[in-house]
Amino acid sequence: MFKSNYVKKVFEEFELKNKNMPEYINAAKEILESIEPLFIDNKEYENLALLERFLEPERFVEFKVLWTDDSGKIRVNKGYRCQYNSALGPYKGGLRLHPTVNQSIIKFLALEQTLKNSLTTLPMGGAKGGSDFDPKGKSDTEIMRFCQSFMTELYKYIGPNVDVPAGDIGVGAREIGYLFGQYKRITNEFSGTLTGKGLTYGGSLARKEATGYGLCYYLSAALTKIKNDSFKDKIVVISGSGNVAIYANEKATSLGAKVVAMSDSNGYIYDEKGIDLAVVKRIKEQERGRISLYPKYLGRGEYFEGSSGIWSIKCDIALPCATQNELNLEDAKKLVSNGVIAVGEGANMPSSLDAIKYFVDNNVLFAPAKAANAGGVATSGLEMSQNSMRLSWSFQEVDEKLKSIMQNIFEASYNETLKYGKNKYDLLTGANIAGFKKVAEAMISQGI
Ligand code: NDP
Ligand code: 2IT
User: Fold this and answer.
1) Is residue 419 packed enough to be buried (19+ CB in 10 Å), middle (13-18) or exposed (0-12)?
2) Exposure of 3 by Cβ count < 10 A (0-12 exposed, 13-18 middle, 19+ buried)?
3) How does pLDDT run across 65-76, given as a tens digit for each residue?
4) Which of 238, 265, 418, 426 is most open to solvent, judged by the fewest CB atoms within 10 Å of its CB?
5) How far is the CA of 400 from the centre of ligand 2 (A)?
6) Atom of ligand 1 nearest to the CA of 266
7) How far apart are CA 276 and CA 284, in angstroms?
């Protein structure tokens, strides 16, 4: 699989050390397959043990989170923070609350975040954290008590110049508010230690929209350059119906596309006339309900049980925006046989490695997560800048900056794709190489 003996040896050792962590191994494999040529060109990297150093998180904390539910029962969860790499700046990355969260998920996300943050060109290292706490069905006061307890432990490891967490699955403005309130109480400090804050207490305009909008900006740039095409009049399918999916829909629609399907973890909706996003926002953002309500509320569209069926819908552009490993080789084959021209990853690692290979081999423009969904963390970086300056930019200013960051990420990655990629659609190789080069240079400069 690897041509370089050094990369092969490091990967084998990594696999052995992390045997029970399939997502983490998968993420490392995907990166190493792309960046291998750099190790063939730069023999000195081996003497510097650069790859071993890169693949070892700087710090990983696991802690106990105790809270009481509304009936007074004591509940126990696990909390995590993985501070992967600080070569480029303070650790930065989201917090995920989902019952599937474990060490493997947090480490894979933190590794991905390190290269993603590098691509944004902003000064941010890579981190990720979260808990196996399940927010579904919990009351507001339960969420608040959980967040307070989580922060009572996490605050020791974070700070505006140390580590700046934000949202991810299960963590939006409500949770960030409770986490921020507790951080402020404990430290007696009002600082920009979290991003994704509410607009009344230091949040940035356009942060909520940023990941979904950024995904469409990246894909638009790639479509224009590589296929001389755009979102206009395209049929789009988007998995998920959370923060990333909703704002990807909003931007794709405003660019002239028609989004016909969205999903949640139970099933998907299909609406031939185009999804009415106001109805989805009502269900998901206001009522925190299930997507199955859509046909009932609108009197239009259909609901199907099982979320993976969404990839059998005929479309021009597919945007997986739910979670990891949600699009496998079989799904990729269906999409290709239905004529898909581009796939943009809003979620982190949604496509399996063989699905990605299938897309690239079939000349489907493939926009990889760490580049295509970097708009969220990039705008978090802009929130940090605004907090430091104690001022706030208008929506339009932030949106313009986001657009130019996504354009730059595309161009930087595409240059490397043309040099190292399998073909011009292999934006994954380009993103990994562009992201890694900067981290490597900073690591080498800073010594061991
Ligand atoms: P949300 O919690 O807002 O939404 C998550 C969506 O994905 C929901 O529709 C949820 O359905 C669905 N989902 C979650 N887990 C699963 C699962 N195991 N199987 C099927 N569906 C699932 O999260 P976000 O929109 O913020 O995050 C979505 C993806 O985007 C994640 O991969 C995240 O890491 C990534 N991302 C997020 C960024 C951000 O700024 N928020 C930035 C960059 C990437 P249900 O409601 O049924 O659980
Ligand atoms: O995966 C991601 O990039 C995020 N969840 C956003 C992280 C952030 O710090 O804004």
Assistant:
1) exposed
2) exposed
3) 999 999 999 999
4) 418
5) 19
6) 47
7) 13
71-103 pLDDT tens trace: 999 999 999 999 999 999 999 999 999 999 999
What's the pTM value of the predicted model, to 2 decimals?
0.98
pLDDT class of 347 with cuts at 50, 70, 90: very high
What percent of the chain has pLDDT above 70?
100
**Structure tokens that stand for 265 in this block:** 């973890």
Q: Point out the ligand 2 atom lying closest to the alpha carbon of residue 112.
A: 1
Q: Does 179 score more than 90 pLDDT?
A: yes
For 319-338, what is each residue's pLDDT tens digit?
A: 999 999 999 999 999 999 99
Whether residue 422 lies in the annotated active site: no
Is the minimum distance from the CB of 113 to ligand 1 under 6 angstroms?
no
Atom 22 in ligand 1: residue holding the nearest Cα: 265
CA dihedral over 196, 83, 403, 224, signed as positive or negative: negative
Residue 1: is its pLDDT beyond 90? Answer: no
Using CA positions, which residue lies closest to atom 39 of ligand 1? 168
- Could you tell which of 92, 119, 244 is best to mutate to test the pocket of ligand 1, judged by most ligand atoms within 8 Å of the CB? 244
Question: Separation of 376 CA from ligand 2 center, angstroms?
Answer: 6
Question: Is the Cβ–Cβ distance between 110 and 130 less than 8 Å?
Answer: no
pLDDT in tens, 116-147: 999 999 999 999 999 999 999 999 999 999 99
